[in-house]
Amino acid sequence: MQPGDAPYDGFAETFAREAAFSAYNAHYDRPIVLGLIGEVNGLDILDAGCGPGLYLSELCARGARPVGVDQSADMVRLAGERLGSLAKVRQHDLAEPLTWADDESFDIVLLALVLHYLSDRVSTLRELARVLRPSGQIVVSTSHPTADWLARGGCYFAGGFVEEPWSNGMTHRYWHQPLQDWLAEFTAAGLALDRLVEHQPVPSMARHHPVEYEKLIRQPGFMAVRLRKRHLEI
Fold it and tell me: Which run of H or E residues covers position 195?
């Protein structure tokens, strides 16, 4: 994938159909991440990498005022069709500054299964921290370093991009690194770790996706962190 390319263009509708009900999205990441975010009624939320709007829909239903952005024009279209006037959705590449957003304009920034696609994660996190209010939170979910290591083998402590084909014909290219390097990047971006959660499947996965459930109750697939701005004493 070259800078500026949107990997989900051409695959957005397939992804949207699968993610609405899939084990890893509907019964794993969405419930865990939304639980980590907590109460959102009346809050301004930026869903950075909103995809087809599945998280946006949940946030709207819980009383939030969300704004969604995505690099993919196809995803933006699908999210707009899903949300209508309930949320603002716009096309934006997270590698670029959020020139349209004022400082300290959001209570929460959500990065659900997005950060591992970016080459300069620290710069993106710093820019997202700029638009975050002082008491706000950034919630990030990504693949668990142990799961990445088990899938690819080799040295756990090595980092880099991995490319793997998906069944829908898309090539999935994502960054992997050990846990200590993820935490170091959060610190470099001026953020402090408030909580780290290693995903566990919700009970509904056992009914709808029993094979995945048996795997994910024994070993981690994703992790999520809640980050806050570091307030340095002078």
Answer: strand 191-198
